Amino acid sequence: MAEHTSSSITIEAAPADVMGVIADFARYPEWTGEVKEAEVLSTDDQGRAEQVRLVLDAGAIKDDHVLAYTWTGENEVSWSLVKSQMLRSLDGTYALTPVAGGERTEVTYRLAVDVKIPLLGMIKRKAEKVIIDRALAGLKKRVESAPKA
């Protein structure tokens, strides 16, 4: 990933619980404000999503795009853009690091977005930061409010 924006948050749950929420694309509309629809188009031999179609409505930005996912071990997932109406590229990663003996997880989200309409770099980075911060806050709330098994 070239220039990217990143941020981290600590979630009061084990990495497997956090990744379980990240990998459950069908439920994204329940906890991510911008995702209105999510459809897994293909899965790998372990049943993890390889391609996902997402319909976004973030006010001024509405898009229907497909992302390709790459799973690295149990604690990292990356994605890149396959097709989009508004985006030229979108590359992101969730990296999970166990903390406090595995009872907590530090989640680092990296994102690089390039839209088809011209934007100043400063505005683009600010938009990436807003997307990341909202996603991490939503993920934390979703994971920590989920019933424990």
Provide structural commentary.
The protein is an alpha+beta fold and 149 residues long. It has a single domain, classed as 2-Layer Sandwich (Alpha-D-Glucose-1,6-Bisphosphate, Chain A, domain 4), CATH 3.30.530. The chain is built from 3 helices and 7 strands. Strands 1-7-6-5-4-3-2 form a 7-stranded antiparallel beta sheet. The termini are far apart. It comes from Streptomyces parvus. This is SRPBCC family protein. It holds the Pfam family Polyketide_cyc2.
Q: How many separate structural domains?
A: 1
> DSSP strand (E) fraction?
over 45%
Shape: globular
Calculate the terminal CA-CA distance, rounded to whole Å.
36 Å
Q: Which secondary-structure class do the elements indicate? A: alpha+beta
- Largest beta-sheet details: 7 strands, antiparallel
* CATH class (first level) name: Alpha Beta
Q: Indicate the low-confidence ranges by residue numbers.
A: none
How do the strands of the widest beta sheet line up side by side? 1-7-6-5-4-3-2
CATH topology: Alpha-D-Glucose-1,6-Bisphosphate, Chain A, domain 4
Under CATH, the homologous superfamily reads: START domain
The CATH architecture can be named as 2-Layer Sandwich
InterPro entries: Polyketide_cyclase/dehydratase, START-like_dom_sf
Protein name: SRPBCC family protein
